[in-house]
Design goal:
By secondary structure, this protein is mainly α. About 65% of the residues lie in helices and about 0% in strands. The chain is globular and about 25 Å long.
């Protein structure tokens, strides 16, 4: 079973955020974006920019490949 069983990038971001016990606005502050951005990512309304994605990968200590897999999955779901 996968360590990250979420189906979309937004679900992964939300799962990782909740595992750290953070509110959306707290995560936003830690990576330098608005709370609205985190909300939109978690609800798959928008995807993080390349710069924001790099910050998320570093903050959550996940591989870039894992995050890229979710972006590919999201594109296929459309």
């Amino acid at each position: 079973m996968s360590k990250y069983p979420s189906k979309t990038l937004g679900q992964l971001i939300k799962k990782l955020r909740l595992e750290k016990g953070l509110e959306q606005r707290e995560l936003a502050g830690k990576i330098g974006v608005s709370g609205t951005s985190v909300y939109n990512w978690e609800n798959d309304r928008k995807r993080p920019s390349r710069k924001s994605m790099e910050r998320l990968v570093k903050f959550f200590k996940i591989s870039r490949k894992k995050s890229d897999d979710y972006q590919i999955e999201k594109k296929k779901a459309l």
